[in-house]
Amino acid sequence: MGKSLLIIGAGGHGKVVAEVAAACGYDNISFLDDNSEEAIGKINEMKAFCNQFANAFVGIGNNQFRNKMIKELSEIGYEVPVLLHPTAYVSKTAKISAGTVVEPLAIANTNSVIGKGCIVSVGAIVDHDTVLEDCVHVNAGAIVKSGAHVEENRKLEAGEIIFGY
Questions:
Q1: Sequence-separated (6 or more) residues with CB below 8 Å from residue 142
Q2: Which of 34, 76, 113, 146 sits at a 20 to 30 Å CA gap from 95?
Q3: Residue 16 belongs to what H/E stretch?
Q4: Whole-angstrom Cα distance, residue 48 to residue 140?
Q5: Three-state DSSP class for 164?
Q6: How does 23-48 read in b/e, with b if 16+ C-beta sit within 10 Å?
Q7: pLDDT of residue 164
Q8: In a 3-state reduction of DSSP, which class is residue 45?
Q9: What is the 3-state secondary structure (H, E, C) of 49-116?
Q10: Which of the 8 DSSP states describes residue 148?
Q11: How far apart are CA 103 and CA 106, in angstroms?
């Protein structure tokens, strides 16, 4: 039997999450979304799908909403995985928490600490000895330089640079 994943949100970010999940070996992927015909149900029906999906992931870009939904999924009893695309470089000393996605060609370098529910977008760099608090979005091509600390729920725009030491 394959690995299944329920994704909350079927919009653009949800579809990216689905592709990363497929690259990670999930072969039964479904969505809950209030506004998508692709979805198998509405977001407020999460509890009803617990018996069909052990794993669930929030594929919604809004940091505050993602933070809230991850807590709800955990309280309901879902396992919230970490999704690391096979082309991403993730140091063996990086610490990455539940609900975080590291997208294609992104980097999580030595001793980086990435909180729960973070998005490290395509080509983003989280350099060594950095801390991303919960539900940070490091957008495409953004760089978090060595020793930097990024506060909870912050969104770094594409190409933005956060200085550290």
A1: 121, 124, 125, 156, 157, 158, 159, 160, 161, 162
A2: 76
A3: helix 12-23
A4: 34
A5: coil
A6: bbebeebbbbbeeeeebbeebeebee
A7: 95
A8: helix
A9: HCCCCCEEEECCCCHHHHHHHHHHHHHHCCECCCEECCCCEECCCCEECCCCEECCCCEECCCCEECC
A10: -
A11: 6
Burial class of residue 7 (count of CB atoms within 10 Å of its CB; 0-12, 13-18, 19+) = buried
Question: How far is the C-alpha of 42 from the C-alpha of 131, rounded, in Å?
Answer: 34
Residue found under tokens 């957008």: 139
Q: How many CA atoms lie within 13 A of 158 on its CB side?
A: 3
CA gap 130, 122 in Å, rounded? 18
The per-residue pLDDT string of the chain (165 residues; one tens digit each, 9 = 90 and over) reads: 579 999 999 999 999 999 999 999 999 999 999 999 999 999 999 999 999 999 999 999 999 999 999 999 999 999 999 999 999 999 999 999 999 999 999 999 999 999 999 999 999 999 999 999 999 999 999 999 999 999 999 999 999 999 999
Report d(CA 13, CA 4) in Å as an integer.
Answer: 18
Residue keyed to tokens 């091509």: 141
Cα separation, 109 vs 132, in Å, equals 12
